[in-house]
Design brief:
With 272 residues, this protein is of the alpha/beta class. The protein folds into two domains: 152 residues, Rossmann fold, CATH 3.40.50; 112 residues, Rossmann fold (3-Layer(aba) Sandwich). The chain contains twelve helices and ten strands. Helix 1 packs across helix 10, helix 2 crosses helix 3 and helix 4 packs across helix 10.
Length: 272
């Protein structure tokens, strides 16, 4: 592993910035190259084969930009494409679902866990399977939230429309009495305050980004891949969407004063 390489992170859009934020905290000396596929968001309603192809295109791009490892900061892409990417590329690749499942399994007290995510993530039952592998004694309930990502990407994360959608999506999980809610899409921590208010203080929200960053650190520990002498890490951002819109969101989510964002045409990804 090239210690001086970057940690590559990608998502269908802005949500993966919540993962990038945690990686910056846990691994402050590492260079990061982030790719947001905002031009093709959302992934959650797309067929598995399409999600895999998009994920391969972005992974090739990140490797060309010097990625030494890749974090799939997208639950949908993790569920659909993690295994395919591991087969295709010769570098460490991790997703967000295993980390989130571990957090949820250890956090529940009453054995009832709720998972919210895209239609694809919920239908795949990826969280259900991972959590059940860890704990056979729990019940896992899923609720798809198809409106969340488009609303967040559209800057409507505090809108009445989003709050009403959240009330609708969370109602069946409240009825089940879950005491843990997994934010099974990396966009969802952006609206966590609304979700917490609806669910109540007695419900623990699980953000897989936190455990994913720790998993990335453990992997670099294992591979001896830390960029320990790097006192001035570089953070590069790429998007298939509008660069200025992405930059405004990135500054808010990641907490950087300025961000270097470059637009990448979808056609460039497709050419490989």
């Amino acid at each position: 592993m090239d210690k001086g390489g970057s940690i590559g992170i990608f998502d269908s859009g802005l949500g993966g910035l919540t993962v990038a934020r945690q990686v910056m905290k846990v691994l402050p000396k590492e260079n990061i190259v982030y790719f947001g596929d905002n031009g093709r968001v959302p992934y959650g309603e797309r067929p598995r084969e399409v999600i895999i192809e998009f994920s391969k295109q972005i992974s090739r791009f990140l490797i060309k930009k010097g990625a030494k490892m890749i974090i799939i900061a997208c639950n949908t892409a993790t569920a659909a494409a993690l295994d395919a990417l591991k087969e295709e590329f010769d570098l460490p690749i991790i997703g967000v679902i295993s980390a989130g499942a571990r957090m949820a399994a250890s956090a529940t007290k009453n054995g009832k866990i709720g998972v919210i995510g895209t239609t694809y993530t919920i239908k795949s039952e990826a969280y259900h399977k991972k959590i059940k592998e860890l704990r056979h004694d729990v019940e896992v309930y899923g609720s798809p939230c198809p409106k969340f990502t488009p609303l967040i990407e559209g800057g409507k994360q505090d809108s009445q429309e989003l709050i009403e959608a959240a009330q609708e999506y969370l109602a069946p999980l409240k009825e089940k009495g879950v005491d843990v809610l997994v934010l099974g899409c990396t966009h969802y921590p952006i609206v966590a305050k609304h979700l917490q208010k609806i669910m109540g203080d007695g419900v623990t929200l699980v953000d897989p980004a936190i455990a994913t960053a720790e998993e990335a650190k453990a992997l670099l520990d294992e591979k001896g891949g830390h960029n320990e002498g790097n006192l001035s890490p570089t953070y590069l951002f790429y998007t298939t969407g509008d660069a200025s819109t992405f930059a405004n969101f990135a500054k808010q989510i990641v907490g950087l004063g300025e961000v270097d964002v470059t637009h990448v045409p979808v056609s460039e990804l497709e050419r490989g």
